[in-house]
Design goal:
- With 102 residues, this protein is α+β, with helices and mostly antiparallel strands.
- The longest helix has 12 residues.
- It is flat, with a radius of gyration of 21 Å.
- It has one domain: Ubiquitin-like (UB roll).
- A hairpin with a 5-residue loop joins strand 3 and strand 4.
- The protein is built from 2 helices and 5 strands, in the order E-E-E-E-H-E-H.
- Strands 4-3-5 form a 3-stranded antiparallel beta sheet, covered by helices on one side. Strands 1-2 form a two-stranded antiparallel sheet.
- This is 1,2-phenylacetyl-CoA epoxidase subunit B.
- InterPro entries: PaaB (IPR009359), PaaB_sf (IPR038693).
- Pfam families: PaaB.
């Protein structure tokens, strides 16, 4: 089947999530999503789309169906239990003055 405005019909390409590590950053940050026929093309397209101005030094592309995430509705069961463990917070411990960052 073909359409004059959209071209020949093709199967839907899988969705990829794109993460970029900036030049001054230590962590990869989610910057967006894109569709691509395969992993290599997803990486190529992510570079062209999300790092056109040399913003990054590393790119990760992950098939969206491979990402497992908690739901905002599950906030209490996932994150509330750690609130009662004050020893996990650095404010519980005295920090020596010669320690610049924790």
């Amino acid at each position: 089947m073909s359409d004059r405005t959209t071209g020949p019909a093709r199967p839907e390409w899988p969705l990829y999530e794109v993460f970029v590590r900036g030049k001054r950053g230590l962590n990869h940050v989610h910057v967006g999503s894109l569709h691509a026929p395969d992993d290599e093309m997803a990486l190529h397209n992510a570079r062209n789309l999300y790092t056109r101005r040399n913003e990054g030094v590393s790119i990760w592309v992950v098939p969206a169906d491979a990402v497992t995430a908690s739901s905002p509705d599950e906030k209490d069961p996932y994150f509330e239990p750690s609130g009662d463990k004050v020893y996990r917070h650095p404010t519980f411990y005295p920090i020596p003055e010669d320690v610049p960052h924790i």
